[in-house]
## 1
Amino acid sequence: MIAISTAFNTAQVAIKRGNKTLLQELDANCKHSENLLRVIDEMLDSLGESIKDEDEFAVVIGTGSFTGLRIGIATVKGLCAGLGRGKVIPISSLDLIAYSYLKRNKVEKDFVVVMDALSELRFVCKYDNLGNKLSQPALVKAEEVELMPEVKVTSEEKLPYIKTPLLCEDLLEFAIKNKGSAIDYHDVTPLYLRKSQAEVGLEEKMSKKS
């Protein structure tokens, strides 16, 4: 399996072949589009493996960086297309954060995962203490999060909530745990809960013209 996350500034790649596992993070200053394929190739080479033998992938589909998500999904789709096959496990960023929190803590109450969506907006999703989803991912105002009674969890240092790390090993474990949700690579699409700044800018420009 090859699992990829490019939803955040730091990209993650996890590869598992039999009893061999290799995990790697790409520095936040790296350009994911230029380095992702090279890193995957180098990791496979160090394991003595070939991409030709791969038929199982996982990729974080969102929420997160618009550009990052496109790069990760396009990379996985491109690899599958080149192979002419491939099942892909689509992973939610919010679900992954919830997994990390449950893995490292004794959780007894419902909680809400929070991600910064910029412009005083937040991505949120609620879970019970077993990790079952209690709501669908949503985009809300920052002030609305403060009114939520649940424990608030995040992976981002700048948000004032309980912090949980997002490690490569979490990405791989979560992907393996969710093998049953794999879909055909043609059907993988990003999870966007808001429009990009470019789309908003274009709409504003068009509305002024009209």
## 2
Amino acid sequence: MKEVILDTETTGLSVKEGHRIVEIGCIELKNLIPTKKVFHCYLNPERKVSESALKVHGYTDVFLSDKKKFIDIADNFLEFIEGKKIIIHNAEFDIGHLNNELLLINKKPISKENVVDTLEIARNKFPGSGISLDALCKRFRIDNSRRDKHTALIDCELLSKVYINLIEQKEPVFQFKNELKNYSKSDIIKDYSKIIIKPTQEEFVKHKKFIDKEFKKNFY
């Protein structure tokens, strides 16, 4: 199964205020493992970057002025994501901006049915806890020290690791102290002994042969 981790950076928050995309980053996953396929580009938004957005990603008007426009990369971008589930953190924001760009050049919008929002997954899994990308990196002990600014590819790399943890990790159930109240010390020792796995006779013989072989190899 192929999926795409996707992130964008923009000139500002609101499409209604005319804000545009300045960067798109995509990393392809196959069976949850990153492949070598990456899509990345900076874009000339044809408008000024807001001060608040500049503080987030650091892309100046001068830096973006000679970059390609969205219409120039649209077909390559759509080809890259075609037929794949799209994984986004706070999908409403990115899809809103992407579909606005597609609308401006008379292209079909991206269907929300093909999008997985990791923000929603985190919200349902950890109610009341921090669910920003940084908070989830901290929860899953993912090194995000390179995230000095919000840049699309670095955020995609981090999200790919967060996503795997979100869909695979089971939260521990902290019931040990309560369970201990129902057992005596002897009961606990008996229960603990049940997890000891004794080798079969066949395994014991194989192990002895292995030890004898290694001993002769190292000492004779």
